[in-house]
Amino acid sequence: MSEILLQIDGREVKAREGITILAAAQNVGISIPTLCCHEKLEPYGACRMCTVEAEVRGWTKLVAACLYPVEQDLVVRTRSEKVDKTRKMILELLLAHAPHSMELQDLAKEYGADKDRFEKEASFCIHCGLCVRYCAEVKKKNALGFVDRGTRREISFIPEIAARECWNCKECFPLCPTSALQASFVLTEALISLSPSSEPESEE
Amino acid sequence: MKNDKIDRIIDKHGCEPSSLIQILLEIQSENHWLPKEALEKVSKKLKVPLSRIQHIATFYKAFSLVPKGRHEIHICMGTACHVRGAPRVLDTVKDLTGIKPGETDLDLKFSLETVNCLGCCALGPVMEVDGKHHGRMVPAMTADVLRNYD
Amino acid sequence: MARINSPAELEELRKGILSKRDPNKRCITLCSGSACHASSSEEVAVSIEEEIKKQGLSAEVDFRKTGCHGFCERGPIIVIHPEEICYLQIEPEDVPEIVSQTIKENKVIERLLYTDPSTDEKIIHESEIPFYKNQERLVFGSNGNIDPKSIDDYLALGGYSALAKALSRMTSGQVLEEVKKSNLRGRGGGGFPTGRKWEESRNAPGEIKYVIVNADEGDPGAYMDRSLLEGNPHSILEGLTIGAYAIGSHEGYIYVRQEYPLAVENVTIAIKKAEEYGFLGKNILGSGFDFTIKVHQGAGAFVCGESSALMTALEGRAGEPRPKYIHTAVKGVWDRPSVLNNVETWANVPLIINKGADWFTQIGTEKSKGTKIFSLVGKINHTGLVEVPMGITLRDIIYGIGGGIPGGKRFKAVQTGGPSGGCIPEELLDLKVGFDELTKAGSMMGSGGMIVMDEDTCMVDVARYFLDFLTDESCGKCVPCREGMRQMLKILTNITKGKGKEGDIELLEELSEVAGDASLCALGRTAPNPFLSTLRYFRDEYEAHIREKRCPACSCKELISYYIDPVECKACMACLRKCPSEAIVGGKNLIHVIDQDKCTKCGTCFEVCPPRFAAAKKISGEPVPSPIPLEARVIVRESKEK
Question: Between vectors from CA C414 to CA C409 and to CA C416, what angle results, nearest 5°?
């Protein structure tokens, strides 16, 4: 693997070919905000909080740092007017769903995001996908997944699998940026809708 | 739907994860909906997690997880039909049937769906019932068309 | 049918087919494309078959059901060869007369001919009808002469000669160079240089490579791909095979949207026939090149027209797009090099190989070579599919070929590029159509949908319509698209309902910027285009909706009222009888009045009021005048009689 030389926020950074801008930045102590990233999971690229400016051969574009591979002579700016504007809007859009999320609130302070910019939405899932991906990639149980698409997309538990696996696991709960509420809320719903003939759980 | 029928469909398309959508399309076409048992069977045979099948069955408009009515009404809401007044046709059909797009009435008589272009723009607005196209629709004509179906 | 094992055998076969065909023999062709099918062309077909038999003409007259002819507004269409007599809007009842008069007695039936609206002249020959005369139907023209279920028809027109030439007289590198030289750009949306895409795949590491036909055609109002695939499937198979040869791929996929059952059927038949004849499979035409094609159906998702989402769907998953930081030409289906091109792009390839890149570059403009098939739909007299050279003006397409706007209404805008495109206003009608020109005007070429809009179309509603479409079709994975459009749709819907407020336009612009900059895929990045382009050219409409609660086009239901002008109303009862909500009060000699509380704004009264009275009106932004007193509504007939 050859070594790439790029620039991040004015600093010369050496990086191994094939790694992402996010990883290269983290290696030199430059932090880029993320919501859908987790060290145990494949990069997802859904929250777009890690959007940065990347300039190559004179052309500047906005890219997701968690997915964009490092390039020789790439010039990266992790903060700029455009970048900050983008992150602020993303936060405001998500705060309409989960105004009480600590993670969102902390970021909102840094970027000047207003949690009341948009009217409150009914669903408090921000679609970071951490719960779904953790269950699929780490636990390999696939007890929950996404359903539907567009503005109707939601997470959904498979009641039979959840009944078997979730009570003794619950490892996805602390991952949820909107606090465990969403996950457990939906889980309870799913379990309640089970017919009496399915497997009983060991706890009450 | 009979188990062996599902087996037949799976074998016909090849028992691989990449054939998943083709298999579900055929089950949908024969059965008019995808019962949970069918999805579980496909999940087991193709060794694909049920959560992924659930995502696919809800992501794509071709699939229905609930039984459909005897007659499927599709109203084209493509841009050309829209510009020629399709929304008013849709409103009238909603009033006549009592259901909204995506729903089936309680007698399981009509299912209503909007589609995003049937490719018959010259005939717009178009209302398709059970595959038959009714072109140049205006709200006043809808009742006459639907009256023919029981 | 014995396999064809060499180019020489192919030419023998072709000669044999042509020798059995008499160009002077009478042949009736009937358009059986999906739109004509919906207009009962099947019944016409049955009628023709029966009538030919009945009149004992089975030996003298051939009958061919062909693909789409393009003049969809006037279907079903019959063309009688060799004279090329073109009859329009045929019904089964017309058939006996056609057979006895035209076929038997060589008499032309005037009432079935095209009438020029300005000169009243009757036009007999298909190619002289203005709709066709002003086109250049290089790709689409063959549709009228081919029965899509027959391979012999395609061979009779020279089909598969390009493949034979490529495989036997050119190296794969030379084929690639020819396509590069032609400057062919993608006909599905982005307009990316096709040769460059092929080259990237050819040079990418990996033994297994794929070539894919994108026949998802999700843009509402665009149906040219459907007509090409239904009407001339072999042209796409030939183009795909040539491309596979150039790239080094041995597996091809045709991804067809499931809403096109006839296209799926015809392309599946074509593949079987091609395999029988040896144009697909192992050692094609003795060249040593192997290639197979599989058909894969879509399942109802517009986003699957996006190349990376399509490839994800081919893998059997939900069609969520992937970032294309590494081009799919390098890492596509199963992370293997994959070339995806649109149906029309592939259909151009045999022409380029047969006639050469130099011939191709003579057509079109400097940056946009060749022709483009547009679906001309909406508020237009001649709805249909038109193929024109790049560089033609919008005015020539809409008026010269399209016949202008029906009902004498004023042209307002033409929407191109589907949900990723924009609206082009009257002042830009002389724009020369091309990839870059359309993009500069705030729209894009897209797949070639051209939706014409007139003075009755509300441009704010057009933006709302596209946002509504996209919020349903978005995959929903990334925040800028899913949440950005959620909020944009809310605001636009409120504006069309009279609930818009100051600051809405600015907020919409801000949301547009974020979605445009930070979305994961092109669907999200181009989602704001319909709003941005309508704002650019029709800002006054937005402001009227927000500040005056008025819809200038009198279209937005919540902002309009239907009103019967008592001065014009002649109490003919037409609207009273048809009103589905029984909201009209009046009688035989009593001027009609609409009960605004009962009115559902369906527009029926407006449509049925006789044009000579034109009493039913739409008003917006002003209160409905109170009904005149009952006594004043009585019409005294005697004094009004002449």
Answer: 160
Q: Answer whether C301 sits within 8 Å of B60, measured CB to CB.
A: yes
Tokens, residue A185: 């809320």
pTM of the model: 0.93
**Residue C469 contacts B where some CB pair is shorter than 8 Å:** yes
Put simply, the answer to whether B55 touches A144 (Cβ < 8 Å) is: no
From chain B, the residues in CB contact with A190 under 8 A are none
Taking only the tens place, the pLDDT of each residue in C1-14 is 789 999 999 999 99
d(CA B11, CA C161): 37
Domain architecture of chain C: domains with CATH: 25-81+85-124 (3.40.30.10), 151-361 (3.40.50.11540), 371-454 (3.10.20.600), 459-547 (1.20.1440.230), 559-633 (3.30.70.20)
Q: Which of C370, C360, C355 is nearest to C161 (CA)?
A: C355
Tell me the pLDDT of chain B (150 aa) as tens digits: 778 899 999 999 988 889 999 999 999 988 889 999 999 999 999 999 999 999 999 999 999 999 998 899 999 999 989 988 899 999 999 999 999 998 999 998 999 999 888 888 888 899 999 878 888 898 888 989 999 988
CB-CB neighbours of C71 under 10 Å = 23
ipTM of the complex: 0.92
The DSSP symbol for C477 reads -
pLDDT at residue number C638: 65
Q: Coil, strand or helix: which one is A164?
A: helix
Contacts of C489 in chain A (CB under 8 A): 151
Best CA proximity match to C147, nearest among C218, C63, C225, C25 = C63
Assign C262 to helix, strand or coil. Answer: helix
* Cβ contacts of B49 on chain A, cutoff 8 Å: 136, 142, 145
Q: Where are the alpha helices (DSSP H) in C356-430?
A: 357-361, 394-395
Residues contacting A132, CB < 8 A, separation 6+: A144, A145, A146, A155, B51
- Residue C217 has φ and ψ, to the nearest 5°, of 30, 70
**Residues 6 or more apart in contact with residue C625 via CB below 8 angstroms:** C563
CA distance C256 to C274: 18
- The closest of C140, C158, C149 to C274, measured between CA atoms, is C149
- B71-146: CATH topology is Glutaredoxin (3.40.30)
- Give the relative orientation of helices A102-111 and A81-95 as an angle to the nearest 10 degrees: 150
Crossing angle of helices C224-231 and C343-355, in 10° steps, is 60
d(CA C637, CA C132): 51
CA gap A180, C163 in Å, rounded: 61
A68 touches chain C (CB under 8 A): yes
All structural domains of chain B with their residue ranges? 3-59, 71-146
Q: Are C267 and C229 in contact (CB under 8 A)?
A: yes
DSSP C613: T
Q: Both tokens of residue C638?
A: 């005697």
d(CA C209, CA C200): 11
Question: What proportion of chain C, given as a percentage, has pLDDT over 90?
Answer: 90
Q: Cβ B59–C259 below 8 Å, yes or no?
A: no
* C511 touching chain A per CB within 8 A: yes
In contact, C416 and C422? CB cutoff 8 Å: yes
Question: If you measure CA to CA, which chain A residue comes closest to C470?
Answer: A150
- For the beta carbon of residue A59, count every other beta carbon within 10 angstroms: 7
- Taking chain A, what is the end-to-end CA distance rounded to the nearest angstrom? 54
Question: DSSP letters of C505-563?
Answer: HHHHHHHHHHHHHH-SSHHHHHTTHHHHHHHHHHHHHHHIIIII---TTS--GGGEEEE
| End-to-end CA gap in chain C | 79
